Amino acid sequence: MDVIKTQQMSASMIEKVVVHPLVLRNIVDNHNRLVKDSGKRVVGALLGSISRGIVGVTNSYAVPFNEDDKDPSIWCFNSHHLEYMLDSFKGLNGMENVVGWYSTCPYLRDNDLAVHSSVFKGCSYVLSPIVLVTIDVRSLELGIPATAKAYYTVDSSLGSGKEAFLHVSTEIAPPEVGGRLLVTEMTPGGDNDAVESIEALYRFVQKKVRISVSGYDTSLNVLDLLGSLEKHFESCGSVENIDVPIHPVTHAITDRCSTVCLLGEGAAEKALALNGSDAGGWIVSVALLPPECKEMAAGMSAREFALSIVELGNKILGLTK
């Protein structure tokens, strides 16, 4: 397996991968219930966001995966399950996208490069470049893996087209980052931890205020726009997320309307009060957006939603009939 060390590259598109500890804890739980002592590994999708070279992993879910122990070229990744579950999660939190995948094998396997370069082709809501995080489920501290390594692919020889994994710094985030609640993995097994985690996320999303912001010029640099939006709306409460439509390759802004998520008492009223204000060269236009989750809009309770998601995961993974 080709791996390029960080110091071999003069510059990296990704500088660091930050994983929430509860995501790691629940990946371990998932591994132990599905393949413990079998010698097999569990793989799954990582959800989160990428900002200024830092990948934040805030959620994940397992994906059915099979591979031949003797022939690494024979493997099967269930793309239908990947897309189906992603649609479910996007309905709950539209700000999370696929940032990569995980493997509960502590080292890179011979087929990882093939899996990495092909499984997300044609998949919706995928940020580029994607990362692979390998997790050593044997080495635990307080139930959380002590070892996790992150990689993404680069051209191993300029212009050759041959890819290799580039190792990047990995960090385990504290349980609370900036006062915000981060999301844990949906572990399909019907256990209380999974249900409570999804319930907590549902209630958290209910408290969010989603606003549409327009008025800027698409010729702006995306990092400048992100900084401008965060500074402009920080008086409204905690700026939880900013979604600026960008081109996946050029990273140019593609739309004159972005979505900002706020959290805090009176956030909606404070945001609307900024409608028509000057954001340093452009006039801000603000509009409130409805809940992104259709179940939330329909009045479904947090418990009902959590149980339905866990039940769906159980059925797809074959844990229940």
From TrEMBL:
<dbReference type="Pfam" id="PF01398">
    <property type="entry name" value="JAB"/>
</dbReference>
<dbReference type="InterPro" id="IPR037518">
    <property type="entry name" value="MPN"/>
</dbReference>
<dbReference type="InterPro" id="IPR000555">
    <property type="entry name" value="JAMM/MPN+_dom"/>
</dbReference>
<feature type="domain" description="MPN">
    <location>
        <begin position="17"/>
        <end position="161"/>
    </location>
</feature>
<dbReference type="InterPro" id="IPR035979">
    <property type="entry name" value="RBD_domain_sf"/>
</dbReference>
<protein>
    <recommendedName>
        <fullName>MPN domain-containing protein</fullName>
    </recommendedName>
</protein>
